Amino acid sequence: MITRIDVLNQIDQAVELLREGELIGLPTETVYGLAADASNPDAVRAIFRLKGRPANHPVIIHLARVDQLGQWAEITDPRVKLIADQFWPGPLTLVLPKLAHVDEQITGGQQTIAIRIPAHPVAHKILSQFGGGLAAPSANRFGRISPTLAAHVRDEFGADLALVVDGGDCELGLESTILSLVAEPELLRPGVVTVETIEHALGEPVQLSNRLGQRASGMLERHYSPTTAALLVESADIDSLLRLPKYQHRRVGLLKISANSVSCQQLVTLPNEPLGYGQQLYNRLRELDQAQLDYIIIEQPPISSQWAAVNDRLRRATVKPG
Fold first, then answer.
1. Residues with Cβ < 8 Å from 152, sequence gap 6 or more?
2. Among the listed ranges 86-90, 211-215, 306-310, 317-321, which one has the minimum average pLDDT value?
3. 163: Cα within 13 Å, side-chain hemisphere
4. Given this model, what pLDDT does residue 25 score?
5. Which of 279, 274, 275 is nearest to 301 (CA)?
6. CA–CA separation, 140 and 27 (whole Å)
7. Count of Cβ atoms closer than 10 Å to residue 234 Cβ
8. Domains of the chain, each with CATH number or no CATH
9. Spatial separation of the C-alpha atoms in residues 28 and 114, rounded to whole Å
10. What is the pLDDT of residues 183-235, one digit of tens each?
11. Phi-psi region of 276 (alpha: psi -120 to 50; beta: other; left: phi over 0)
12. Looking at the predicted structure, is the pLDDT value of residue 2 above 90?
């Protein structure tokens, strides 16, 4: 069991390591991040190298306070204050025009930068003590299931990572909403903060990304994926799918929300509401991925704005049945 003293000692150690240019595992309310000093090009480069992250895939900068925003981005747009006042600290990332001095390896070669202020108390303490910005994409190998426990980060990187600060289970379990204010408001990635909530705060519509313009974290078609082949299937089609020769006599795990019973090797049931489902999704998906199955079948959750973030992650994590 991690005690308060243990966490405080880890925070001090984390800040020291970050100042030395090392990487750490950082807890946030969304998922654990792989954090480095954003002003240290060598440290940022180490993130990309350890994750196996493509150089053109931007990372998110994490800050402790709103007044640090102007050190990284242009903030002349009055909508920035509206969003910051309502959603920070919290699980929303803003994409803004970057300042000229910002290293383009952070931004994937773009003239924009993604920034958020996390709400997790341990992350906030580390950021406050560190005093600068931290580049912190999810603490996993690129494209794989995001980590929601410190143990997940250790499983991913082992001795390659100097420290994983244990902040317990991530409260939300899904990555942040990403909103671009470079031009008209554009949702680049859905999250717990919904489009409707953002539109209410701004008093104007938010368009959904066509993925043809800006690049942002988690926008690739294949992402958040288990190594086991995962299929997203409508509830009514699961039983008939399992009767197909391709899936008979195979080890199949099922992740579902309905009460209907289906015969399989491993069954996981998640809450039938989006916040609870999202909080548990990656942890339970990792369990299935480690169970030496041939297939993971995921029951399609409801299609609605409240489930948008969950369905976005599932769509990128799965392949079509065939």
1. 32, 139, 140, 145, 282, 283, 286
2. 211-215
3. 25
4. 98
5. 274
6. 13
7. 10
8. 4-208 (3.90.870.10), 229-317 (3.40.50.11030)
9. 16
10. 999 999 999 999 999 999 999 999 987 655 565 665 556 677 899 999 999 99
11. alpha
12. no
User: pLDDT tens across 234-266, in order?
Assistant: 999 999 998 899 998 899 999 999 766 677 778
Alpha carbon distance 282, 296 (integer Å):
13
Considering the entire predicted model, what is its pTM?
A: 0.93
Cα-atom radius of gyration of the chain, to the nearest Å? 20
List pLDDT tens digits, range 127-186.
999 999 999 999 999 989 999 999 999 999 999 999 999 999 999 999 999 999 999 999
**Is 249 buried (19+), middle (13-18) or exposed (0-12) by CB count in 10 A?**
exposed
Instruction: Provide, rounded to the nearest whole percent, the portion of the chain with pLDDT above 70.
Output: 93
Q: What is the identity of the amino acid at 50?
A: L
Tokens of 203: 């008093």
- Over the chain, what HEC string results? CCCHHHHHHHHHHHHHHHHCCCCEEECCCCCCEEEEECCCHHHHHHHHHHHCCCCCCCCEEECCCHHHHHHCECCCCHHHHHHHHHHCCCCEEEEEEECCCCCCCCCCCCCEEEEECCCCHHHHHHHHHHCCCEECCECCCCCECCCCCHHHHHHHHHHHCCEECCCCCCCCCCCCEEEECCCCCEEEECCCCCHHHHHHHHCCCCEECCCCCCCCCCCCCCCCECCCEEEEECHHHHHHHHCCCCCCCCCEEEEECCCCCCCCCEEEECCCCHHHHHHHHHHHHHHHHCCCCCEEEEECCCCCHHHHHHHHHHHHHCECCC
Report d(CA 146, CA 242) in Å as an integer: 28
Rounded to the nearest integer, the mean pLDDT of the chain is 92
